[in-house]
Amino acid sequence: MEAKNIIIVMLDTLRPDHLGCYGNKWIKTPNFDQVARESMVFDRAVAEALPTVQVRRALWTGMRVFPFKREVFATAEEAGSAGSFFLGVPGTPMPGWAPMPWYVVTMSEILQGLSFLWSDDEQAVPEYRTALITDDFPLFSFPGMNFYRGFGHWEYIRGQAGDRYGVPVLAKKWDLKRFIPPWFEGTWEHMQLLSHLANTAKWRSEEDHFAPKVFSAAIEWLEDSREAEDPFFLLVDCWDPHEPWDAPQHYIDLYDPGYKGLEMISPYYGPTRLMTEKELHHMRMLYAAEVTMVDTWFGKFMDKVRELGLLDNSLLIVTSDHGHVIGEHGIAGKLPAGMYNELVNCLLMIRRPDGVGAGQRSDAFVQHHDIATTVVNFSGAKSPYEFEGKDLMPIVEGKKNKVRDYATCGFCLNVWCRDDEYVLICRNTGDEPQLFDMRNDPEQNHNIASDKPEVVKRMFDLVLEDAGGPVLPNWKVDPLLLKVPGVQSIIDWTEWSPFREWKMPGE
């Protein structure tokens, strides 16, 4: 088989329900919609572990991150006894937010032609030129993060929120009261926003924004590779539309023209009760504006792909890692106990160069580790072991209609499970269950866990089955992390629960 190019576009925090191809009627996304018409669209693509880094680990390796057993960090006690913190003390209090274990191979390493390390057989296909272009700050957030593995070319665009890039005092160039209400100050989100404002203080045009930079860099790589003969694997990982939501004004005016007031470009992770309805509405419109900006620059990238004639010999996969709750259920952010549709559901479109599956839709439960399996199998390359992800090509080809009967996900000390009828969200112990009837209550407004304890037990048993036993029974935050400014705030929002009283800052 002639080797085909492979392009994956990953968008961070892109809710599928904000795209026309997933039924949205008011947000402008013509470029995603065009690709959807040429692809198989998956309506029940969901995360298998959250948030950002956990999803990339699954995508890169074809292996599950949940239930967070493949870790590479030392504990504080181990690091102390060794007299060195270079064993890798984690930089965040989240299970799975860690580098990829070195004993797990990545799809880029396989495509790069490294199979000679585990097989005496020669590759059945040419070695791929591999490239990663990203502004995804968490992938480079501290020493030891190794998401460049297997990429012959990788480009990291600096400056996303949290990246210590701009001189902090530059944040004062902005009218901080425009973005930061008094009750927001001192939180982790406040610290992230100040970093972002320092990083972006010198912006002068739309081209300075991150999505334009990422897709422009990807366009340049395609241009520079025009004369290359070997097939390529290009992974474009754009952190937008992740917050802060600060698209140029002409995008905002599409959805909320003339607005005056607080601009929450970065939401507080937790209840939204301190925001007025006007402020909350504007925050939603800011996100919509960011989505349209991302669509615009994704479209410029696709224009270049078409111009170079690459669609006829390239597999294209477009996906997102997760969504974001923006006032639904009375909360905002990405909260472990808030793994509602708005957070867990993902975009996934697969466009084959031969047109197979174009214009079709699938309701199969699919997850990010399935993508790596699909890519490696499509290339004809060999893996040293069987990936845990499932090959999605039989679905695209109409030979199967599903690869699993249910899906599970983990986020800190909360778990999630969905089958054709129900969604369960609960603690890793099974406590604080939220059960929703997806046929009669698709917006997940009515918790029926107390009415159907047998369903709660059945679905939690599925979680334990996937986990191979109890989920993180002894996990706790490393005490060293509590000394880091802002960490306590992160711990607080990961513990939000609709079952417990929640105190907002300043209350």
Rough outline: globular
Count of beta strands:
16
Distance between the termini: 65 Å
Label the structural class: alpha/beta
Mean pLDDT: 91
Beta-strand residue fraction: 15-25%
| Biggest sheet character | 9 strands, mixed
Helix content, binned percent: 25-40%
Radius of gyration: 22 Å
Order of helix and strand elements from N to C terminus:
EHEHHHEEHHEHEHEEEHEEEHHEEEEHH
The number of distinct helices, counting runs of at least 4 residues, comes to 13
Low-confidence stretches are 82-89
Quick take:
This protein has helices at 30-37, 52-61, 76-82, 107-111, 188-199, 210-224, 249-252, 277-307, 341-344, 368-379, 393-396, 453-467, 487-494; strands spanning 5-11, 40-46, 129-134, 153-156, 232-238, 270-271, 314-320, 325-326, 331-333, 345-346, 348-351, 361-366, 407-411, 414-418, 422-427, 434-437.
List key phrases describing it:
507 residues; four-stranded antiparallel beta sheet; alpha/beta
What are the SSEs and their pairings?
Blueprint lengths: L4 E7 L18 H8 L2 E7 L5 H10 L14 H7 L24 H5 L17 E6 L18 E4 L31 H12 L10 H15 L7 E7 L10 H4 L17 E2 L5 H31 L6 E7 L4 E2 L4 E3 L7 H4 E2 L1 E4 L9 E6 L1 H12 L13 H4 L10 E5 L2 E5 L3 E6 L6 E4 L15 H15 L19 H8 L13
Parallel strand pairs: 1-5, 1-7, 2-12, 3-4, 3-5
Antiparallel strand pairs: 2-10, 2-11, 6-9, 7-11, 8-9, 13-14, 14-15, 15-16
Structure description:
The chain is an alpha/beta fold and 507 residues long. It contains 13 helices and 16 strands. The strands form three sheets. Strands 1, 2, 3, 4, 5, 7, 10, 11 and 12 form a nine-stranded mixed sheet that branches. A hairpin with a 3-residue loop joins strand 14 and strand 15. The longest helix is centred in the middle third of the chain and has 31 residues, at 277-307. The termini are far apart.
